[in-house]
Design a protein that fits this description.
This protein is an alpha/beta fold. The chain is built from 15 helices and 5 strands.
Length: about 325
């Protein structure tokens, strides 16, 4: 995913490089899908295509340096960028549960070799949360005695769960939700044929997380929103729409669609609340509270997608004009 937003972390990194005070380990902390791995890749490209730093005014993190080195990065062949991530299991497409100790040991062996190109070697761990225990301990020893001209970018979705000794040896960059206008412009550039209404709904449902926004818009958020709105406006007297929703989001294979529904509902209820008189907002808030309880109970229990989908449909049906009049 391309880097979108996050000017504050980018400025902090570039200022440290320009001042000649580049920390050897950077912990990139924030929710999954925020763009931390994209930031790590961009920062790695910057380092291996520029000098050692401390020379002249700050640049931008997306400035292109040495053209030959940049071509190697683009081709994925730069010898001084090492990526540690979960690998496919056997011959299947499924990824291993963890980054293994053998992977970390292989990386450490590489650190004993002299640089073959440029001033920096960059290690990206995506994500450090995935390290098995022995691998985390091995990495910690390297962070305690870092090789010269080596920079680590450690991607973490849950930094609070890391070893405190790892966190203490890193400079933390926190990745915050991207502003709505930045997200909107980015999505319109990526998906120029998408209607503005769908883009706005996607941005609202994404919570400022670019990865989630992209997944939502590619899951046809507009079509799903229309289905939910149909239940809320008609009341679905014969249960036909609710049953269809339950079938669509039920089962393990449809978990992404269920998550899409859960992401869309807050924005949909907010719109319904804005369209109603002040005296009629309370029922909308009550159904939102009911939906939240349903999702929490499902996560704690068996997480029956069809049941959750049908119950969300029940909550929306209660907001239909005829249902409201009957109360």
């Amino acid at each position: 995913m391309a880097l979108i937003g996050h000017q504050t972390p980018a400025d902090a990194f570039i200022e440290a490089w320009a001042a000649g005070r580049l920390h050897h380990a950077w912990l990139l902390a924030g929710p999954q899908g925020m763009g931390k791995a994209a930031f790590a890749a961009q920062a790695a490209r910057f380092l291996v295509t520029h000098g050692k730093g401390g020379e002249g005014p700050p640049l931008s993190i997306d400035d292109t340096g040495d053209p030959a080195a940049d071509r190697l990065v683009t081709a994925g062949n730069h010898p001084e960028i090492l990526l540690l991530t979960r690998q496919p299991k056997d011959k299947s497409k499924d990824l291993a549960r963890n980054i293994t100790i053998d992977q970390v040991r292989g990386m450490i062996r590489r650190l004993h070799f002299s640089l073959s190109l440029g001033h920096w070697r960059v290690i990206i761990v995506d994500a450090i949360d995935d390290l098995e225990t022995d691998a985390a301990n091995a990495l910690l020893k390297t962070l305690e005695e870092p090789p010269a001209q080596t920079v680590f970018f450690l991607v973490s979705h849950s930094p609070g769960r890391l070893l405190p000794t790892i966190r203490s040896r890193c400079r933390t960059l926190r990745f915050q939700p991207v502003e709505h206008d930045v997200m909107t412009a980015w999505l319109l550039e990526l998906r120029p044929m998408t209607e503005m209404g769908e883009v706005r709904a996607t941005v609202a449902a994404s919570g400022g997380v670019p990865g989630k926004a992209l997944a939502l818009i590619d899951s046809d958020v507009g079509a799903m929103e229309k289905k939910l709105l149909a239940i809320a406006t008609s009341g679905d007297p014969g249960n036909r729409l609710r049953e269809a929703l339950a079938r669509e989001v039920g089962g393990t294979a449809n978990r992404a669609k269920l998550e899409l529904v859960i992401d869309i509902v807050p924005g949909l209820l907010a719109r319904l609340a804005r369209e109603r008189p002040v005296a009629d907002i309370a029922p909308v808030l009550a159904q939102w509270d009911r939906i939240q309880r349903t999702v929490r109970d499902a996560i704690r229990g068996s997480y029956d997608g069809a049941m959750v989908g049908f119950e969300i449909g029940n909550c929306l049906a209660e907001l239909a004009p005829r249902a409201a009049a009957a109360r």
